[in-house]
Amino acid sequence: MANTSVSTPESVNKDSAASNEQALPPVPKQEKTQAGSNVGLKGGVFLTKKTNADSIFIPEEWNDEQRMIADMVSDFCKMEIEEPIMKRGYEFDASKELDLIEGQLRKAAELGLCGLSISEKHGGLDLDFNTGLLFSEYIAAGFSFATTIGAQTSIGSLPIVYYGTEAQKDKYLPGIATADLIASYALTEPTAGSDANSGKTSAKLNAEGTHYLINGQKMWITNGGFADLFIVFAKIDDDEKLSAFIVEKAFGGITLGKEERKLGIKGSSTVQVFFNDCPVPADNLLAKRGEGFKIALNILNTGRIKLAAGGVGGAKYATSRGIKYAIERKQFDKSIASFGAIKYKIGDAVMRTFALESAVYRTGRNIDLKYEAFKNGGMSQSEAKLKAVREFAIECALLKVNGSELACNVIDEVLQIHGGMGYSAELGIEMGWRDARITRIYEGTNEINRLLSVAELMKRAYKTKEIDLMGPTKSLPFHIAKTRVPFKSGKGLDTEERIVDNFKKAFLLISGAAGRKLKLKLVDEQEIIMCLSDILGEAYIAESLLLRVQKLQNKQMRSKEEIEVLSSVVRLYLYEALDKVRKQGHDAIAAYADGLEQSMMHRMLDWLTPRYDVNAKELRRQIANHAIAKQEYPF
Ligand SMILES: Cc1cc2nc3c(=O)[nH]c(=O)nc-3n(C[C@H](O)[C@H](O)[C@H](O)COP(=O)(O)OP(=O)(O)OC[C@H]3O[C@@H](n4cnc5c(N)ncnc54)[C@H](O)[C@@H]3O)c2cc1C
User: Closest ligand 1 atom to the C-alpha of 262?
Assistant: First the structure.
């Protein structure tokens, strides 16, 4: 076959209808992960290996203690955040109310919420990673306070938790756990945003060798207006790479800009921070010289999946409010919840939220298991924690993108359900809409995270050779020719399993062919990478959702009625995702291939993503009716 970058077929497949449908050697069977085995504990490997449903964690398995933490955070948000904001008519302005925010942080600390990841020795709760994600989910109902406490418990303190010396931990972590010390993370600069390593902030050791003098300007620093501590990233002398420092405000040489005027999260403090010969004791260097960028990236990995959990929490919160309002609001003598157009929005929100939740906690648990495996292998606790999150960097990036877009899309539709009242400041829906928007920008913009997800996968496939993408790709065309029939939904979820498989194949097929054709130039073709990232994201989320519902079925962990509705959630999600995979796939193919190769690739993608015969309207209605009957997000 002329000039094709897909593996060359060797013999004609007699079953094929078209003349250029040809067969390849048989497809190697996908290895299945077993419950308890750690095959599934390799990041990105979901793409080439099948996972056993019973081996994944599902949120139905939260234990009593974890549920208690979730309830406590939920009560805290209602009493300490929502009520004060409501009293202010949903106006909350950090520039005038820093004391109030500080007070809220202290109250959260009294409940232990500022020390979730801090060891008990240092006054924290030392929770496992997945319970930390559960906290992020529930604190999302605290609107902008989620950002404030996120900076305290995540980006502002984890650099010390993971990289600090014992002396640094002893000195700072107890204060962070009680919120006597407010923490912040200062990476971004006016000329260094996404390109964070290009920062100009400098650090010079003084002649006595006792202090670094830090000079420079940081921007968009969350909690900056009332922070006692800044994790500052700066370059020592002419270093190419950043170093990280623990900087106390009390060291002097620090001035703050005015509170930024922002679109949303107005209840969080965001300022510029100026360092003018700020003297930082040499002992306050975090990790080794030049390791700052690594620290910054590793901390962001953690933040990304937390942000996704927050997206799930925000979406659940908004969906519940949308459902309640829709039931109460009457037009044309009927509750608007009875209208198909409104049910569409409710059904869609529930379906998307449930799907993403499945992927977030599947990943969170895998991070915990990987941590245990590393620790049992002799790694220190901090290193094991970091490496475990790093292992799932691909999933974290995909989840960040999808979690933030979920939150933004759901709150947008919930605002629409509220009509004019959604647009008014009176109910706080518009505040949620504004607040959600930042999630697509910070912790790495969604563009950067889409690029990163694919780049990281390619690195593991072709540089470190941790994932075999080539093997499964070679035998794909044969397999595709065998599977090119429309999908018909049956009684079980077998068809749906095939659809998920085909998402993975679509990714492998297109990424393999594009990679072979463009080689290193692929990194400059960002439009193609964006498409690939979307396909990869759908493959992971769809699979996580399917596995969760299969596990629920196997273990009968929900009522028969709920499992029926959840089977509809799977079908509807796949129906929507199929469209996206098909579109993004064709876009990518058209962008890199031409001539015969292009038509062949388009055809193979069509075979992988044929029509899926379901009644999407009925599925959405069924899900929406279930949610409306429960009068809130139902699962
Ligand atoms: C409210 C708020 C709070 C924040 N809190 C903190 C904090 O506490 N600490 C901190 O250090 N930072 C913080 N940030 C900064 C935040 O992380 C950055 O805004 C973010 O990383 C993007 O950087 P930037 O704003 O400079 O945008 P830019 O990097 O200039 O990006 C602009 C656009 O270009 C795109 N782009 C950039 N590079 C590429 C590329 N290579 N390929 C494709 N597209 C690209 C981006 O995706 C984006 O769409 C905060 C920001 C805000 C708004």
Answer: 1
Q: What is the CA(466)–ligand 1 centre distance, in A?
A: 30
**Active-site option among 21, 82, 443, 497:** 443
Pocket-forming residues, ligand 1, beta carbon under 6 Å: 151, 184-188, 193-194, 220-222, 262, 265, 270, 438, 441-442, 445, 447-448, 526
Q: Residue 2: pLDDT band by 50, 70, 90 thresholds?
A: very low
207-224 pLDDT, tens digit each: 999 999 999 999 999 999
Q: Each residue of 22-60: pLDDT tens digit? A: 333 333 344 454 444 444 589 999 999 999 999 999 999
DSSP 154: I
Distances (CA, A) of 222 to 230, 231, 266, 364, 426: 10, 12, 11, 25, 26
User: What are the structural domains, with CATH classification, of the chain?
Assistant: 11-35+467-630 (1.20.140.10), 60-182 (1.10.540.10), 184-292 (2.40.110.10), 300-447 (1.20.140.10)
Tokens of 597: 């190769």
State pLDDT tens for residues 489-508.
888 899 999 999 999 999 99
pTM for the predicted model, two decimal places: 0.93
Q: Find, among 192, 128, 184, the residue nearest to 158 by Cα.
A: 184
Is 443 considered catalytic here? yes
Of the residues 187, 220, 261, 450, which should be mutated to test ligand 1's pocket, given the most ligand atoms within 8 Å of the CB?
220
